[in-house]
Specification:
The chain is globular, with a radius of gyration of 26 Å. The protein is 48% helix and 8% strand. It has 2 domains: 85 residues; 366 residues, no CATH class. The longest helix has 28 residues. Helix 5 crosses helix 6. By secondary structure, it is of the alpha+beta class. The strands form 3 sheets. It has a 4-stranded antiparallel β-sheet with strand order 1-2-6-3, sandwiched between helices. The structure holds iron/sulfur cluster (2 copies). The site of one iron/sulfur cluster (SF4) has 13 residues, from helix 13 and helix 14.
């Protein structure tokens, strides 16, 4: 009996020291200096406990009544701690309804003409559309004119890293060429090649879903889900114009497809780690390019199978992607307004293909995002423009959620000349998807007490306001 007690205690101590070691190695690999120091101290403490145990065992103390009592008390404390950190506690059944669980009153469809990018990027001053829009929305005109005079959403690109910004901007804008090229009508809504018969390929929806997900991952997606398209998340009118196709501007958008395949690609940890400096925009735009590459081929694949399909990516969206991704089971909606995935947090970019190919929708998931975000608030604390709310979710267009102030956020983009990404960088869910972080994610996804504990630990190990990391050598700002 005593041997069994010794074995259980030794195994528990060795297990926790091993996890501590993996955390230390992971922190070194992530180039997180502060986490490496604290991870090192934590590992030394855990190792000391293992050594102390074997020392006391060797001296015979653990075989005496006080020694046995010490082990039993330690074991009970350890078992209780494990129980209260691992057991599923604090489920959010609303999250399992996806976006339906967020709706509290009537929702109106968003008009793409009103989004900040469509206003500031697409509308040429002096045009008929410009006059039409600002006559209907005078509240935006003064604001948008001032922003346009500063250079648009990114102001003077790369301002924060001037005068050495050019190579990173060159890389950033190189990626933009892909979505722009792939947003021509024949690429967005491809037709089957003539070698295929006219009638669609008959495929069982279960098998079709498996094939489509496998193919999407094969193209480079890290996460894939399927949802029925909810018309509430479809834009009401077209507002983004990229090919001088102005007859499209203001047209009502009707999504004819019943299903959407939504996918996410992981953004580079190293590049996002530099936010708000220019390397982070290489990641943003590079992932948009990946999204366009994947969505375009996936739509063409479905077309070749005989089904109608539309690619949705940076230069062509018929719907808002975040709610679609939530409904497709990719994650939940976080305080910072982005999709939060279990695997990469908000450190992803999204793309989608809508189709009439019969598929089997995935179920929305509860990964504890809402509860964790209520505790954490790190993005709100670190946001330089105070664009992220630090209070509870509020009603926004019929849904109860956090709403980022896009206007002030984009003004900050204009100040630094990048897409900032500080909120994404500091989010505790954005850490590398390594073994110890996987364990932490698994715990915070299922347990309320783990969320509280690991939110505090994140502040200790990474700081309340983590600083940007150095860029990889190839993206360091010294071209000479
Ligand atoms: S930083 Fe914290 S509050 Fe903000 S999205 Fe991430 S987990 Fe939520
Ligand atoms: S991108 Fe930057 S400015 Fe915008 S919300 Fe995030 S931290 Fe704030």
């Amino acid at each position: 009996m005593l041997s069994l007690l010794f074995f259980i205690v030794a195994a528990g101590l060795i297990l926790q020291a091993s996890i501590g070691l993996t955390f230390l190695i992971s922190s070194m690999w992530e180039k997180e200096r502060r986490a490496t120091v604290f991870g090192g101290l934590q590992f030394i403490g855990m190792l000391a406990l293992v050594i102390l145990f074997f020392y006391l065992l060797n001296t015979g103390f653990l075989k005496t009544p006080p020694g046995v009592m010490l082990l039993i008390v330690g074991l009970i404390i350890g078992a209780l701690a494990a129980f209260f950190l691992i057991k599923r506690i604090g489920e959010n059944v609303k999250a399992l309804e996806g976006t339906k669980g967020l709706i509290v009153s009537a929702v109106s469809r968003q008009d793409e003409r009103e989004i900040m990018f469509a206003r500031n990027r697409s509308l040429p001053p002096g045009s008929e559309q410009y006059k039409h829009f600002y006559d209907a929305h005078p509240e935006y005109e003064e604001y948008d004119t001032a922003r346009r005079e500063k250079g648009g959403p990114l102001g003077q690109p790369g301002t924060i890293d001037k005068p050495l910004e050019r190579p990173n901007l060159a890389a950033t804008f190189a990626s933009l060429s892909i979505p722009l090229f792939l947003s021509t009508p024949e690429k967005v809504e491809p037709r089957a090649l003539p070698i295929f018969p006219d009638q669609p390929q008959n495929i069982n929806p279960d098998i079709a879903s498996e094939i489509v997900k496998g193919y999407t991952k094969n193209l480079g997606a890290d996460l894939v889900g399927i949802t029925e398209t909810n018309p509430l998340w479809v834009y009401s009118h077209r507002g983004e114009i990229f090919h001088e196709n102005w007859d499209e501007w203001g047209k009502e958008i009707e999504l004819k497809h019943k299903y959407a395949v939504v996918f996410a690609t992981e953004m580079s940890l190293d590049l996002v780690g530099t936010a708000p400096h220019t390397p982070t925009t290489i990641a943003s735009m590079g992932n948009y390019a990946k999204g366009a590459y994947i969505a375009t081929q996936l739509a063409a694949y479905m077309a070749n199978l005989g089904y109608s399909a539309t690619a949705h990516h940076l230069r062509h969206y018929d719907f808002v992607l975040v709610p679609m991704a939530v409904d497709a089971g990719l994650g939940g909606c976080g305080r910072l307004g982005y999709l939060m995935t279990k695997e990469f947090g908000p450190r992803v970019r999204l793309g989608a293909v809508s189709t009439d190919l019969p598929l089997v929708p995935d179920r929305p998931v509860d990964i504890g995002v809402e509860d964790f975000c209520r505790i954490c608030k790190k993005c709100a604390v670190c946001c330089p423009s105070n664009s992220i709310p630090s209070d509870d979710p509020t009603e926004v267009n019929g849904t109860l959620r956090w709403k980022l102030n896009a206007e002030t956020c984009f003004d900050y983009w204009g100040t630094v000349g990048t897409d900032c990404n500080i909120c994404m960088r500091v989010c505790p869910w954005s850490h590398a998807n390594t073994f110890p972080h996987k364990i932490i994610r698994a715990l915070i996804s299922r347990n309320r007490y783990s969320r509280r504990l690991f939110s505090i630990m994140d502040n200790i190990f990474y700081g309340k306001k983590p600083k940007p990391k150095a860029a990889p050598k190839w993206a360091q700002l010294n071209p000479n």
